[in-house]
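Postdoc handover notes: sequence design on the structure in folder B. Input tokens:
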């Protein structure tokens, strides 16, 4: 099996495992990850402590919800940016708030900033990055679009790049491409996620 096949199979597996998470286990893991991210910001382990914008993502229903962390950063006066579709590509736009007035639904149904107040990736020294699988050494398996690799290719050389993951998303190794950008670290959720009972809807194609 080649690298592309390995990636495709792992993406399917990880997406399925995320959907199997029980709601209470997901909420607990999401909250634990947010607390770990807050702790890193409070003791100065992220570059935005020196005035840099912080790049985050706005989670889909299956992704790790970091909204409490984003709200905390906004409350602390940090400039927070997230991907926004401009009709041709994704760019980073400032988040003014997490309410309906400040966010819209993008082409994939993902929330994004309403205002096109754009910040260039080269000005962002701290990143919180989603994915489907990670290694402790900083390898990341994304969704296949390559958007974050393109963002990070333009980020400052010493930028802090933190992946967030459920415990089962941490694997021993991942296929790597020359253009892949390694992460600084991966923050994972605890307690270990449980799966929810399956219903007939899970088996409807």
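Designed sequence:
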């Amino acid at each position: 099996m080649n690298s592309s096949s390995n990636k495709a199979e792992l993406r399917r597996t990880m997406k399925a495992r995320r959907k199997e998470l029980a709601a209470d286990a997901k909420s607990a893991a999401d909250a634990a990850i947010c607390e770990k991210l807050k702790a890193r910001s409070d003791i100065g382990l992220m570059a935005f402590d020196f005035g840099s914008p912080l790049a985050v993502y706005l989670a889909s229903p299956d992704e790790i919800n970091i909204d409490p962390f984003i709200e905390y950063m906004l409350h602390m006066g940090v400039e927070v940016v997230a991907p926004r579709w401009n009709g041709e590509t994704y760019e980073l736009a400032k988040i003014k708030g997490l309410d309906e007035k400040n966010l819209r639904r993008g082409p994939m149904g993902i929330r994004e900033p309403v205002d096109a107040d754009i910040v260039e990736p080269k000005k962002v020294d701290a990143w919180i990055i989603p994915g489907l699988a990670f290694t402790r050494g900083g390898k990341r398996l994304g969704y296949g679009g390559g958007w974050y690799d393109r963002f990070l290719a333009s980020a400052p050389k010493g930028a802090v790049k933190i992946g967030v993951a459920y415990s089962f998303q941490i694997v021993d190794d991942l296929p790597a491409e020359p253009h892949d950008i390694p992460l600084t670290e991966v923050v994972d959720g605890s307690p270990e996620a449980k799966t929810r009972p399956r219903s007939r809807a899970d088996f409807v194609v």
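Context for whoever picks this up: The CA atoms of residues 44 and 50 lie 9 Å apart. Don't rerun without checking with the PI first.
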